[in-house]
Amino acid sequence: TGKVSSILIVFYEGQDFQGKSYDCKGDSADLYSFIRRCNSVKVQAGWWVLYERNNFSGYQYIIGPGEYTGYGQWMGFNDCVRSCKIIRNCKGPFKLKLYGRPNFNGTTLEVTDNMNSLREKWSCQVMSCKVLQGSWVFYEHPNFTGRQYLLEKGEYGSPAEWGALTATVVSIRRVMELPKSDS
C-alpha cells in the first residue's frame, strides 16, 4: 500500500542519512542508548519536538514531515538530540491568550494565527499565556527563527514554565498537521 500508518521518525548519526540509525515510533526520554549523536533525520509522519538533553529538557527543535540532511536544517546548534516527543494536538482550531505580566495579569492579546513579528501588534513582553486550543511554538526572533519553545494546551504562568530563561517571544507559529496528499 505504501502508506505510513503510524507516526515514525528516523534518527541518523551521520549527515545525509549515513551511519547508524534508530527508528522511533513514540516519545523517548533517552535516545542516547540507541544513537550517540544525531546529524540527520527523516520524519515520515507526525510533528515532533526534539530535545538537546534527555528527559525532554534543554533546547527544543520542532520538526514536521520531511528530510533533514543536517542539524542546521532544524535550527540545531549541534548534533545533540537526546530525547523526543510526538506533538499530539495539531488539528486546530487554534487559540492562544498572551499576558503582559506574570500569572495571567496585565495587557492581553488573543492569537489565532501565525505571527512572524509579534512586535507589530503588541508592545509588551510575553510574561504568561494560556493555550486554549491547539499547539504553538514561541520563537526568540522574527520570522520563526531562534530558540523554539513548544506550548501545548494549558496555562503557563511565567516563561520558565515553557522552558525559557527570558520572556523573549518575537514570533509565534501554530503546529499544524499537513494536509494529506493522495499520492
TrEMBL record:
<dbReference type="GO" id="GO:0005212">
    <property type="term" value="F:structural constituent of eye lens"/>
</dbReference>
<feature type="domain" description="Beta/gamma crystallin 'Greek key'">
    <location>
        <begin position="134"/>
        <end position="176"/>
    </location>
</feature>
<dbReference type="InterPro" id="IPR050252">
    <property type="entry name" value="Beta/Gamma-Crystallin"/>
</dbReference>
<keyword id="KW-0273">Eye lens protein</keyword>
<dbReference type="InterPro" id="IPR001064">
    <property type="entry name" value="Beta/gamma_crystallin"/>
</dbReference>
<comment type="similarity">
    <text>Belongs to the beta/gamma-crystallin family.</text>
</comment>
<dbReference type="GO" id="GO:0002088">
    <property type="term" value="P:lens development in camera-type eye"/>
</dbReference>
<feature type="domain" description="Beta/gamma crystallin 'Greek key'">
    <location>
        <begin position="94"/>
        <end position="133"/>
    </location>
</feature>
<keyword id="KW-0677">Repeat</keyword>
<comment type="function">
    <text>Crystallins are the dominant structural components of the vertebrate eye lens.</text>
</comment>
<dbReference type="InterPro" id="IPR011024">
    <property type="entry name" value="G_crystallin-like"/>
</dbReference>
<dbReference type="GO" id="GO:0007601">
    <property type="term" value="P:visual perception"/>
</dbReference>
<protein>
    <submittedName>
        <fullName>Crystallin, gamma S4</fullName>
    </submittedName>
</protein>
<dbReference type="Pfam" id="PF00030">
    <property type="entry name" value="Crystall"/>
</dbReference>
<feature type="domain" description="Beta/gamma crystallin 'Greek key'">
    <location>
        <begin position="46"/>
        <end position="88"/>
    </location>
</feature>
